[in-house]
């Protein structure tokens, strides 16, 4: 597979993940506002959601309205942004495959909440499922900002602050975030070993029939 194609696939997956995560955060916002005590924390949650919606709106505009800005068009980053927007437009095309992709992207976030709840129970942390649904998803959105390796550091800060605003101790929030991060590393190692052991034909996809 050409590198450019692989990059487009990865970016499309990230767009799907981002948009569905914003949707989950929107669903959990009423719970978050009910649990929060400080107006500044409520403002943070609303601002975070509004920022996510703003990014989605910008992608939608770029995908459907052709902007003629010569100076920007000569900028390599802007060209890449247009490519992402074009792929986003394709992701809005009704089809069985696209619908499955959206459903899978949404399911992954709900599964992550379930994984966090299981980890919290296993670690003996008294964190309600509703709290994790409302705040852990927002923390994971903040961890998507590409300024750290695998979200480490950003995720921990977000967990400690957001879960702390809901009454969870800093130690519990930090332990949960680290356990979640280590679990992702472990799953990545298992997946990597499976990829090394399996032959190339095992991962072959017949695109026309997919």
Automatic annotation (TrEMBL):
Keyword list, A-Z: Cell membrane, Membrane, Transmembrane, Transmembrane helix
UniProt-listed InterPro entries: L-PG_synthase/AglD (IPR022791)
Compartments where located: Cell membrane
Keyword Transmembrane helix applies: yes
Topological category with respect to the lipid bilayer: Multi-pass membrane protein
Taxonomy, superkingdom: Bacteria
Protein name: Flippase-like domain-containing protein
Organism, as annotated: Sphingomonas sediminicola
Lineage: Bacteria, Pseudomonadati, Pseudomonadota, Alphaproteobacteria, Sphingomonadales
